[in-house]
């Protein structure tokens, strides 16, 4: 039995038609006007009239002087963990040189990186530099030759945040562009005089960035279409309500539409967690956003048992899923839909955001039903090859021709039959 102790409001539906048309017009303008359009949009939206879109090497090195050595060290520690996990992922993705599925039919595949990518790092209001590490490092480990990144300038400085520039440099980026919004997506999808076209664009962004990725998909690959951040916590009576409250608020402060959900088998824990949220909110610098998000979209759900909690989690397919239960390992085989899993109360979601090594660019809005987060595999393509012997053509050719005729494709059949005729000569 499911009981909602705190139920969320419905998230508002954006004016999708207006949004779609606005983004369509931006993309069309960038395709037509190129850099002229990009500079105009930079000036309009970010108060950045700089005609040079690529950040110079001097500006990148200067950024190191504006970031504390302690934070630089923290970035390098995070980068090392992210790289170590990315390399383990890459090593698990093997080529198949050839397997003989039938006498004379040799099949195989190669795992090949894309040639160029763009890593979009948000940053107009807050320098979300951790995303630079999460996006660029897997691309580099995958073997992408040209890894570019872009981020909007900070409105009060007219420059990309120094923390973001340092993180991009530590990650090994090949080129950085001061661009944001839908116009940045269009630029890297189609290319302009200064901005190279790429094969795939990855990274989070606002609704305009998301819509631009949707509209440019096909011209360019994307990771996925993402929405507001989510965390779900499954807890039993052994859990700590203060830790759960902290994790729920950690997501709530992302933006006004972020969603924190607690599913628990213990009513007392549910009520204690709500009280802890209220207490901790008073201490947050981000109280205005976090309190509004929690008030509107936070949920606390009481269930009869953990099996019911698992079913709700699989139905919801949350971006982040935390297991704060006595025996979390027993639930793992039952959980199939999530962006990333955090096992045990000390495995706080924030570690995944910054430093543990898994990727924090994850599917939202139930997309975890069919995709995982950004990884080395995002930048790789698996392409097949085959080689048939003469004997294999003689044995399997008639079947292939027969199937082609059955589908009404006579040219397909002829391509086989002409080879069979040649082999009889």
From TrEMBL:
A Pfam family the protein falls into: Histidinol_dh
Active site: 319-320
PROSITE patterns assigned: HISOL_DEHYDROGENASE (PS00611)
Cofactor note: Binds 1 zinc ion per subunit.
Catalytic activity: L-histidinol + 2 NAD(+) + H2O = L-histidine + 2 NADH + 3 H(+)
Positions in coiled-coil regions: none
Binding sites annotated in the UniProt record for Zn(2+): 251, 254, 353, 412
Superkingdom of the organism of origin: Bacteria
Cofactor list: Zn(2+)
Binding residues for substrate: 229, 251, 254, 320, 353, 407, 412
EC number: 1.1.1.23
CDD domains the UniProt entry points to: Histidinol_dh
Binding site for NAD(+): 120, 183, 206
Family matches, as Gene3D superfamilies: 1.20.5.1300, Nitrogenase molybdenum iron protein domain (3.40.50.1980)
SUPFAM superfamilies: ALDH-like
Family: Belongs to the histidinol dehydrogenase family.
UniProt protein name: Histidinol dehydrogenase
Provenance organism: Fusibacter paucivorans
């Amino acid at each position: 039995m499911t009981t909602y102790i705190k139920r969320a409001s419905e998230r508002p539906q954006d004016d999708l038609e207006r949004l779609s048309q606005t983004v369509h017009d931006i993309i069309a303008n960038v395709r037509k006007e190129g850099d002229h359009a990009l500079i105009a949009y930079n000036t309009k939206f970010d108060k950045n009239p700089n005609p040079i879109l690529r950040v110079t090497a001097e500006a990148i090195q200067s950024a190191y002087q504006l970031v504390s050595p302690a934070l630089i060290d923290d970035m390098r520690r995070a980068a090392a963990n992210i790289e170590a996990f990315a390399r383990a992922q890459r090593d698990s993705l093997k080529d198949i040189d050839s397997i003989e599925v039938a006498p004379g039919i040799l099949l195989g595949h190669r795992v090949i990186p894309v040639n160029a990518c763009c890593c979009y790092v948000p940053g107009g209001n807050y320098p979300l530099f951790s995303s630079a590490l999460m996006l660029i490092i897997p691309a580099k480990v995958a073997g992408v030759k040209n890894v570019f990144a872009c981020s909007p300038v900070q409105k009060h400085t007219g420059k990309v945040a120094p923390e973001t520039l340092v993180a991009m440099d530590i990650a090994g980026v090949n080129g950085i562009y001061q661009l944001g919004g839908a116009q940045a997506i269009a630029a890297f999808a189609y290319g302009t005089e200064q901005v190279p076209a790429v094969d795939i664009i990855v990274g989070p962004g606002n609704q305009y960035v998301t819509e631009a990725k949707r509209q440019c998909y096909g011209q360019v690959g994307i990771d996925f279409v993402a929405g507001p951040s989510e965390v779900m916590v499954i807890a039993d009576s052994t859990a700590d309500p203060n830790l759960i409250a902290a994790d729920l608020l950690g997501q709530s402060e992302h933006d006004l539409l972020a969603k924190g959900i607690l599913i628990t088998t213990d009513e007392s824990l549910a009520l204690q967690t709500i009280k802890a949220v209220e207490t901790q909110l008073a201490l947050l610098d981000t109280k205005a956003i976090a309190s509004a998000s929690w008030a509107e979209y936070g949920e606390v759900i009481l269930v009869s048992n953990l099996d019911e909690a698992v079913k709700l989690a699989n139905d919801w397919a949350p971006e982040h899923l935390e297991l704060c239960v006595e025996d979390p390992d027993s639930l793992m085989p039952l959980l199939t839909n999530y962006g990333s899993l955090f096992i045990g109360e000390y495995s706080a979601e924030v570690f995944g955001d910054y430093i543990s090594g898994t990727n924090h660019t994850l599917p939202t809005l139930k997309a975890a039903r069919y995709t995982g987060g950004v990884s080395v595999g995002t930048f790789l393509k698996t392409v097949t090859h085959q080689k048939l012997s003469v004997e294999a053509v003689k044995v399997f050719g008639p079947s292939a021709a027969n199937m082609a005729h059955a589908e009404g494709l006579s040219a397909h059949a002829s391509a086989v039959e002409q080879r069979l005729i040649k082999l009889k000569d």
